[in-house]
Amino acid sequence: MKRRSARALLLVCIMSAATLLGACSDKESQPIVTEEEKQSVIRFVAAEYSTESKPFLEKLVREFEIQNPEIIVDLQVANWNVLDGIYTSMLSKNSPPDLLITNVYAHFANAGKLNDLNEIISPELRAKLYPNLMQMDRIGDKQYALPYVASIRNLYYNEELFEGAGISAPPKTWNELMEDARKIKETSAAHGFGVDLTDDEIQAYLSYFFFGSGGGWIKDGKWVINSPENVQGLTYLKELYGQGLTDSEPTVTTRDEKQRIMGDGKLGMMISGNYFASVVTRESPGLRWGSGPLPVRDGMPPISFGVQDVLVSFQTDHTDKAALMKFLDFLYDDNNYEDMIVREGFIPVTSAVGSRLSQSDSAMKQYLEELGKAKFYPIQEPAWQAVMDISRKMGDAVLYDNLLPQDALDQLQKFAETRSGQ
Fold first, then answer.
1. Residue 179 in contact with residue 271, Cβ under 8 Å?
2. Phi (first) and psi of residue 292, to 5 degrees
3. Phi and psi at residue 31, in whole multiples of 5°?
4. Residue 333, SS3?
5. pTM for the whole thing?
C-alpha cells in the first residue's frame, strides 16, 4: 500500500510539472488575470438636488454595473451644503473623485488637476450637448467640464397675496417691485420680497441686481465688480431691506426655506429657478402661484439669467478613460437623462432631450430659448471660486454693519484683481 501510494504521488507530481511547463510555454504572453484585477473603479461624487436625487442615481449605477461588470462606480451623493467639504477632503488626501458634479471648475483646471474631457467623451455625447454651454466649460482648446443641468431664474409670486393687494401683474422694474412689496406688506401679514443673502445664494442675488442694472462681474476680461451699475444694484437691495420690504432674515433663511414660507402664505415674491414649479407643487400643493421676468432698473432692457452645474473629471492614479466614456454615455443616455431632468425640474443640456420635452411643454421651449441668450456666472475665471467665497461674507456686513455698498464692492473688486493678478 505504501509503495503504491508513493508511486502514485510521484506520477501526479510529474504530470503536474508537465502541465505547468506546458502552460508556461503556451501562454507566456497571456498571464492569468483575476476578474477583480480587470475591474475599473469610478469614484463619482454627485450633488443632491432633492429627495429624488439619491435613489435615482443609485438605481442608474446598479443598472450600469449590471451591463458593465468590469466597471465599479463608487457613488456618493451629498447635499450642496456639505459637497464642497467632501471633495475638498478627498483632494487633501490625494484621492480625488473621478467625476464630480459642481458649479465651478476653472481654479481646478488652472491648478492642473482636471482631465481634458476632449480625450474622454464620445463623439455621440459631444454632438448632443448644447454648444453655448460647452463653450463656457472650455478654456482655450481644453474641455475641462461638461454641462450637467441648467436653470433659468425668474420672479415667482403668491397669486392670492397679489389679488389681496390689488396687484394685477408681476413687477418688471425695480420701482414696481418696491411698490408691490409695499402693497403686500400693507394688506397682509406677509413679507413683500424674499432675498437670499446666505452662503447658498448671495452670488445669485448680486448677479440679478448687477445685470439688472446694466452691470456684471466681468467686462472685456477685467473684473468690474465695483462699477457704478453694480453699486446701484446693491444699494437698491439695501434700500428694500431698510424699508422693511424684504423678508426679515435675508442672511439666515435660504431660497429653499423661502419657497416653503411662500407656500405657507407668508411671502409675496421671490426669485428662484424654473425648478420652483416641481418643488412647490410637491411641497405646497395648495399654493396658487405665477411667474414673471427678473425685475430690472427702470429704463433697462429685460434680462435672462441662467445657471449651469457641470461635471468635471479629476486626474487620478487609476483614471480609465474608456470606463469614464462608457459611464458618461450611460449617464447622458436620452432616456436616463430625461428621467432625471423631469424628476428634478431642470432644463436639459442635451439637444435630444431638450427637443423632446419642448414638444409637449411650452414652458420648457421658452426656458431653452432664454438659456441661449442668458447671462451666467463667470465660471471660466480661475478666481471665481475665491471671489464667490468672499462675496458670501458680504451679506451681514452690508445689511447690519453699516458698510456702504460702494465700500463693500471696492473691497471685493480689490480682492478679485489681486487674486487674478490684474
1. no
2. -155, 180
3. -65, 150
4. coil
5. 0.88
